Amino acid sequence: MSGAYKQLNLTQLEMVLPKLLEQARREQWTYETLLERALTAELDGRERKAMARRLKAARIPGKKTIDGFDFSFQPTLSERHLRELADLSFVRTGTNVIFLGPPGTGKTHLSLALANQALAQGHSVLFTTLAELAQALESASHPGLMRQRVRRYIAPSLLVIDEVGYTTLSQEQAHYFFELVTARYEHGSIILTSNTSFAQWGNLLGDEVLATALLDRLLHHAEVIAINGRSYRMKDRQGDRGDLSTQPARTPIGAPSTGVR
Fold first, then answer.
1. Above 80 in pLDDT, residue 138?
2. Cβ(259)–Cβ(98) under 8 Å?
3. Is residue 18 part of a domain?
4. Is the pTM of this model over 0.85?
5. pLDDT digits (tens, 9 = 90+) for 221-247
6. In what order do the strands lie in the sheet with 96-100?
7. Which end of the chain, N or C, is surrounded by fewer C-beta atoms within 10 Å?
């Protein structure tokens, strides 16, 4: 019998069928009810395994949620807007989401919350920092390995790139970053977090022309959300001293609306 389960790929049903049969005899299920419960058990088991595979592949460093975000600490941020984003229409339309703001204001929390929501809805996700991404591409020892690594970042429905602005890229790394954004342009969504205004990306990439071309693709279909608030990590040390508030992140002229409503 076990061979039949494997041939039909009913591995989840094989594990639960004895209990289902026992319950069916005890509660006198009809054949239709038993069949429905058996198929449901198989499908539920497959979804749990698929979710586990997606979660492992995503390399998400934490389980964050929109409900777990303290919007009262960041009053300039629209909770309604973030909950609208959590319906994941931006993933389905290939729209990018960019969080701009000082360190500690919740950019990574919100990006992880949206990424976890995408995973739960069956989307493929990959999380990386810009430094990790640049190093992974630059360290490819031959063209075949480079293509393989680039595909890894192109394939997911949603790519999260955290900590843009903390590391200045080399010329080669900047070109790899540009090529990746170009490859995903209008094909897959990117969530990006940055503590650096767009006007400073020329310094980040070491090339003003390349930065302009990259931002043109990144921002063409994008929700740009500026978080103009204080650091969560510093709030216990700051107390009520408003003079320690961080300065607002600035969006350059010509960038899309921040979407903060």
1. yes
2. no
3. yes
4. no
5. 999 999 987 887 666 555 544 443 434
6. 125-129, 158-164, 189-194, 96-100, 222-226
7. N
